[in-house]
UniProtKB/TrEMBL annotation:
Its EC number is 2.1.1.182. The keyword S-adenosyl-L-methionine applies. It is an enzyme of class 2 (transferase). The lineage of its organism: Bacteria, Pseudomonadati, Pseudomonadota, Alphaproteobacteria, Hyphomicrobiales. It comes from Starkeya nomas. This is Ribosomal RNA small subunit methyltransferase A. It holds the Pfam family RrnaAD. It is found in: Cytoplasm. HAMAP family: 16SrRNA_methyltr_A (MF_00607). Keywords: Cytoplasm, Methyltransferase, RNA-binding, rRNA processing, S-adenosyl-L-methionine, Transferase.
């Protein structure tokens, strides 16, 4: 099936006056070889419903449909882009559903309910890319409704997603990702591939959820990593003081040296810390003190 029998993307952009808005992170991809390469990174799409965030003028949308996705549910905030996608919708009857709205607010399970296998593919708007990823990785229940995430990020964010312990980029994002999924950088995309070009290099990241992450309360993991990386250069015996339990006991139960620093502790160590924290808080609650993991707020990055 060819994607060449649609109007060229530059024409679509001109016709619909799609001047790129910085406030919506609009950096469009017009090279259909590149959009096909991104879509292929997700694997076989034949039986799959693809959720695309921010279809824009539709370059990636065309590639996903041409590769045979059963259906694309495209969520777009910019009304001008929604109008510009009419030709693509007409070319692929019944296979493109355009949802006008904010991807941060979307009820994804409802959008793909009864649709069978699903994945997300997106050239993300960079201003909301990290909160979107954190939201997808925080899905409840787990395993999530999607089989994979194939996402374009700024290279620096991609490095934070896949970072290993002991490296500069290792932090809360790598821990959440590593706990719930396996992630790799598939390839880099130069700034010159986008219209208009962003200031930085970008990377496509492929993320596959782990069916059985190590048992752990998400909010507790968020809380301990927030404390640990709030003072990332300090020893844990210092940085974890804000957790409101005996830090020596906490580290002892988790099996972590008090002199260790956050950036060297692997995901398994943070899971052990989160579980130990929940257990110690429960213990102190039974002793008469209020509180438990329920009162922990979920951090968004
Ligand atoms: N997919 C297109 C492409 O590759 O050429 C456009 C990608 S552009 C980087 C990001 C797109 O996301 C824009 O079309 C923008 O309007 C849209 N967008 C920005 N914020 C959004 C949000 N919160 N929810 C849904 N779409 C959003």
């Amino acid at each position: 099936m060819s994607i060449d029998d649609l109007p060229p993307l530059r024409e679509v952009i001109r016709e619909h006056g799609l001047s790129a808005l910085k406030s919506l992170g609009q950096n469009f991809l017009l090279d259909l070889n590149l959009t096909s390469k991104i879509a292929r990174t997700a694997g076989r799409l034949e039986d799959v419903t693809v959720v695309e965030v921010g279809p824009g003028p539709g370059g990636l949308t065309r590639a996903i449909l041409a590769l045979g996705a059963r259906k694309v549910v495209a969520i777009e905030r910019d009304r001008r882009c929604v109008a510009a996608l009419a030709d693509v919708a007409a070319r692929y009857p019944d296979r493109l559903e355009i949802v006008e709205g904010d991807a941060l607010e979307a009820d994804y399970r409802a959008l793909v309910s009864a649709e069978g296998r699903a994945c997300i593919i997106a050239n993300l708007p960079y201003n909301v890319a990290t909160p979107l990823l954190v939201g997808w990785l925080s899905a409840d229940p787990w395993p999530p409704w999607y089989e994979s995430l194939t996402l374009m990020f700024q290279r620096e964010v991609a490095e934070r997603i896949v970072a290993a312990p002991g490296t500069n980029h290792y932090g809360r994002l790598a821990i959440l990702t590593g706990w719930r999924a396996q992630a790799r950088i598939a390839f880099d995309v130069p700034a010159s591939a986008f219209v208009p070009p962003p200031k930085v290099t970008s990377s496509v990241v492929h993320i596959v959820p782990r069916p059985h992450p190590l048992p752990c309360d998400l909010r507790a993991l968020e809380r301990v990593t927030e404390a640990a990386f709030g003072q990332r250069r300090k020893m844990l015996r210092q940085s974890l003081k804000s957790l409101g339990v005996d830090v020596g006991e906490l580290l002892g139960v988790a099996g972590i040296e008090p002199t260790e620093r956050a950036e060297r502790v692997p995901v398994e160590g943070f899971v052990a810390l989160a579980n130990a924290w929940v257990a110690l808080r429960k213990g102190s609650a039974t002793d008469g003190n209020a509180g438990g993991p329920q009162d922990v707020s979920v951090a968004s990055s």
